[in-house]
């Protein structure tokens, strides 16, 4: 059985990634590392603790991770993040505060130790910036050849970005860290906007959670409705909200949900394209560092599985 670690900037689709991971029997969720992005790190880890409690899994450890990018010493939430995820990251919905604390120790140390302990059985799913993973690689480069798979939500190869015309939000937060990861020999799968903006949810689905009349069903329905309303303003052409982060969790254990191409990727770190994920012409033939880039998704199968899994989880 796989051991899964999530690295999250817990906003709304990260909250859905937690639920999807808990409802996935192929993997044990052994820990969550916090990152900055949709919210500041302290807020994100509190959201993770509170959501785990809501979902009846207070045993999953949560660790503090990076609080800003690898090249800055400060992080400010972008106004658009508050618009999409709410100022508190969970659509201004009030959750019961978990009655436990973060684990002692850093998320990066936890990741390095888990890589040595579980090796090929370890799956890492970053759905925020890559700052923690890049720091772990710097701390112990050997982990690149230990970890079984890293399936990350980030980047855009065949479609425009969502922060600038060429950059996706997670990669945009820390292009240097993402570039470090993409040039490493880690076995990587990229689940970018190419596929995540094709997997959508509407209020029809969230209403079915509310109709379960459980606290988890009702809270998640309220949280995701905020996100659906925000998408009506920011991306009205989509007709729903994008299931970015849960798709990455799904692909991590079930790669047949997407079709991929093998490509050596890089991230531009300098203007005018800083944060762009694109094929690296200088490593075009290097077999050691290829990423599997998802370019198509069986969206009906994914959304059906997503609904089956989350509905079952929210029932209890
Ligand atoms: C990604 O950015 C964050 O806002 C979301 O949680 C997702 O991980 C989408 O670009
Ligand atoms: Ca995220």
Automatic annotation (TrEMBL):
Keywords: Glycosidase, Hydrolase. The keyword Hydrolase applies. Pfam families: IU_nuc_hydro. It comes from the Bacteria. The keyword Kinase does not apply. Residues 4-303 form the Inosine/uridine-preferring nucleoside hydrolase domain. PANTHER family: INOSINE-URIDINE PREFERRING NUCLEOSIDE HYDROLASE (PTHR12304), URIDINE NUCLEOSIDASE (PTHR12304:SF4). This is Inosine-uridine nucleoside N-ribohydrolase. It comes from Ligilactobacillus pabuli. The lineage of its organism: Bacteria, Bacillati, Bacillota, Bacilli, Lactobacillales.
